[in-house]
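Name: Oxidoreductase
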Amino acid sequence: MNIPLPDVPEVRAVGLPQLTRGFDLVDRLDLPTHLKVHGPLAPVPGELLARLAEGIALRGRGGAGFPFGRKLRSVADSAIRRGVRPVVVVNGSEGEPACRKDTVLLNRAPHLILDGALLAAEALGARTLVVAVTRDSTEISVRAALAERGLTNRRGRSLRARVVRTPERMVSGEASSVIRAINGGPALPPGRRSRAAGSGVGGAPTLLSNAETFAQLAVAARIGADRFRRSGTDSEPGTVLLTVSGAVARPMVVEVPTGVPLRYVLRLAGAPPFPQGVLTGGYHGNWIYGPAVDETVVSRASLAAVGGSLGAGAILPVGPETCPLGEALRVASWLAAETAGQCGPCRLGLPAAAGGLADVIGGGGPAALEALREVTRAVQGRGACKHPDGSARFFTSALSVFTDDLAAHVLRGTCGRETTGVLPLPLPGYREAEKAVPSGEKMLIDWTLCQGHGLCADLVPELIRIGPDGYPTVADAVVPAHLRGRAQRAVRRCPALALRIERTRLPAPGTALILRQR
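Structure predicted for Oxidoreductase:
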């Protein structure tokens, strides 16, 4: 069924809106409308801004949840110590198929985000502001907002502002990928972990946070910490933005105060009354068991108590009509194809894990399950970026939550349900212009011809491995563009002519063209 989310889905608010204030009036708040809705904003000195962030317990809303006040102080200290001007970066790169909250803000309330970013820039003495975006709609909106404020990248300005476009990829939204793209490189992790607060854009100390974080800062600066804390819980005050999709009647972005029951949010979107499970935090998040929804409220602490996570703010229920492990396999295959191809755990481990999950679902039995767990353990903690760890967390969470379905597949070979494809993924070939993006191509084996030579597994071990029976198995994943050459070589060198590549193009909705390469 797979229906990708639109750039700007329906937006709802529970209680009094803060971030989405004015959305009932216009589709996009231009600068005059923004000022009418939110009012003017005065500069806040650096120390007071850090205290404000700490007073409202503001954490990054992009997934990592790092305290914003601590990050602000770290950048300021580094800039003073080195005697250089810092840089402020708004990370609006939202390449995850299940997330749209930052995209909604960038499209509909870009000036609220710029308010927060400019507050931080003024407090730090920064002279450079960069906004990283993923989609055409967000780029158009942000460029228009900068123009409305008279902000440009021309020399001689007290603050130079520009927009950087990143590809729609999972790994491209990671902080180091965004900084690498701003510095003129590919939007991929650099292969080593570094602190942007010490050395980021152009080697300068860099304050990088996602779009919602800066918008929250702007709201708090206007209304003050005391009023901000009137909504939400004591430990996590304020509101959060959630993207709710999956098995729901109305995919939406919803602003809710922390402490609202998760069951209420799911009902608002038309989720099944008794979901099998709910994926929390997005595709690098954690599954929670269906009955746990009744004891969970929207907060980091409450979700963590039942094994979930707030993460990137994506909430995806799965109903009783689909195979949850089959749904997990679809996402696992996409995650494997999203590899940056720069380290073994990502380049080799994730395709092997996706293939292992396919073996388990296909009736591989206890041996296949143990092999999958071994591969997943080997991936964790060894990657050059956070993608392997987040993907491994998704794998292990699915195995630990859907135990009845897992037992059915391991012992009987099936749970008796089809995979309906309720978790949103991009359509094949959604972006082919960047190196290492999914190419829209898959490798297939003609089992009537395969003789088990195994040459293909030597040429592309990332996609093909030798099974227990001595025959190759192919990971159910799209061939990344950086592996396309080796995949074609494997096709050409197959002695039995049993290997082929099939590519799906989507010229128009509902139309598919299959090309076979030999």
